[in-house]
UniProtKB/TrEMBL annotation:
Keywords: Membrane, Transmembrane, Transmembrane helix
Stretches that traverse the bilayer: 41-59, 65-86, 130-148, 154-172, 179-198
Organism: Henriciella marina
Protein name, per record: Exopolysaccharide biosynthesis protein
Name of a matching Pfam family: ExoD
Classification via InterPro entries: ExoD
Amino acid sequence: MADTASRDNPLENVLERAIKEVDGDKVTFGDILDLFGSRSFGPIIVLLGMLVTVPPLGAVPGLPMIVGLVIILFTVQIVFGAKRIWVPGFIEKRSISKDKLEAADKKAKPWLKRIDGLVSERITMLTGEWAVYASAIIIIFLALLMIPLELVPFAVAAPGAAITLYGLAIMARDGVLMLIGYVLAAITTALTIAFVPWDKFASFFGGG
């Protein structure tokens, strides 16, 4: 399951590629899957994680929940060896305007360039096939946490950042980033337990 399509793609160009290579004024989730290919686990996970981490995208109401569902569907199917990734039509057609993507790209690019400069192939035993499967399970868990964390302002950036790190670690075979991802996943879990208004969350889904 390890990504072989785009290990050398710099992080700073992931958003730019989605902007430039998709026709029209909007980018759909179906476009993203088609652009990177169903087996390009690392780049798609990086891009989806960035969608809820980089402002102003993370502040779009409902976007973290949709991104979380896409991540779960994508990751589960990859884990079980799907050749072609399926997502429901209403998710596949859900779009993000290129204006918002361009604004996010402009804000994030200087920081992403710095991160790219710190990434290298190291402690590769932590990025082997078993590690990719383990990180996939954690990514699914983090995507689920996006749902309650949407009730906490800006909190979805925490699981989004962890997911982005996992994707980048897989792309670059960087075991140090994988370790940082584990730490950030633990911090995200603690934040979820401490700050999510669980009574409000329960009443929302219970219809009360």
